[in-house]
């Protein structure tokens, strides 16, 4: 049994799929060398050591880890207006990439802050719950 399974797919299948998509985006120029180096330097572990927290706290931390990533993406750009709608869609398709470009440093800073906050919360939760268990045992 693998440590991760999503929709019946094992961790190896998921890892291979992600690696393939990342390599494709890198080859097509969507990821720059500087971005790859920045990601390689990131610590992917929000907490070092054993995280001994309650199931409720662990679930909250898992949820934070799922939503920490921030991006400005235009999803499903459409309009229900018959005549004006196509112009609105074109305007949005032009505007979102420009906004993403202008805000990319801010978005990167927010991602870094979110990741650091999760790391700190893990440490604080572990310390808090270890102190609580020490009080109960004494």
What does the secondary structure layout of this molecule look like, with pairings?
Blueprint: E1 5-6, E2 9-10, H1 11-27, H2 33-41, H3 55-67, H4 85-137
Antiparallel strand pairs: 1-2
Helix pairs in contact: 3-4
**Roughly what percent helix?**
55-70%
- Radius of gyration, in Å, reads 21 Å
- What is the N-to-C succession of helices and strands? EEHHHH
Structural class given helices, strands, pairing? mainly alpha
State the domain count: 2
- Major sheet strand order: 1-2
Distance between the termini: 39 Å
Tell me how many strands there are: 2
Low-confidence stretches: none
Strand content: under 5%
Based on CA inertia axes, which overall geometry fits?
A: elongated
Which sheet architecture does the biggest sheet show? 2 strands, antiparallel
- Mean of all residue-level pLDDT scores: 79
How many helices? The count is 4
Structural summary, described in words:
This protein has 138 residues and is mainly α. The chain has 2 domains: 1-41, no CATH class; 46-137. It contains 4 helices and 2 strands. A two-stranded antiparallel sheet has the order 1-2. Strand 1 (5-6) and strand 2 form a beta hairpin. The chain is elongated, with a radius of gyration of 21 Å.
